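for the writeup, i need someone to sanity check this before i put it in the appendix. the sequnce is what the collaborator sent (i think, or maybe the updated version? ugh). structure was predicted straight from it, no edits. if anything looks off just tell me and ill rerun, i have time this weekend
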Amino acid sequence: MCGRFSLYKIIELSERFRLNKIASQIAPSYNIAPSQDVFAIDSNNQLVQLRWGLVPHWSKEATAKKGIINARAETVDKKPAFKRSFKYKRCLIPADGFYEWKRTGMKKVPYRITLKNGELFGFAGLWDSWVAPEGGVLNTCTIITTTANSLVETIHDRMPVILPKEVEDIWLDPEITDSRLLKSLLKPFPADLMQAYKISGLVNSPYNNEAKILDIVSENY
């Protein structure tokens, strides 16, 4: 799964994703959690703000508890909550690292996972719009997950789909609706291009949102 990530390399966003426009008020975040607002890149290469926790357009109500934070790559084209968005409402969710917890005995130990080159990357995401009875619109998103690669599987059996740069345009192209092609993009990112290291329990609470969350506690993987 993917339940926490970071985006603090704000000044690199525009160049990395060739954005048409970037809001000046974006603040770095070291501990992004479900039900919070996140930034996503839409099919127009615009940076948009969405709430993390997808509420399907047909849902009877919208609550933080009911938002779906992850969609499994294996069934994303079949589940009612995702199938329409998978065809027509895909997005990239930029990040510079994500967190996962390894069960060790009775404890869960947090790890930070990044690209070895330190670059920003994009999660494969879906979004949808829910219209309230009184007319307000809530735009929400989910992050697609897949089986873990050989690095991440030492920590957890699932990982978020990180799209290679060369397929990002395909993912965002609204004219592409071929499920077979789109699902072929949802693969584990190469383990040899990633790194993981143990961090402190500060990350456990979403109220902790400081750079020291990134500090290494022990050896690299």
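Residues 17 and 189 are 18 Å apart (CA to CA). The longest strand covers residues 121-131.
thx in advance!!
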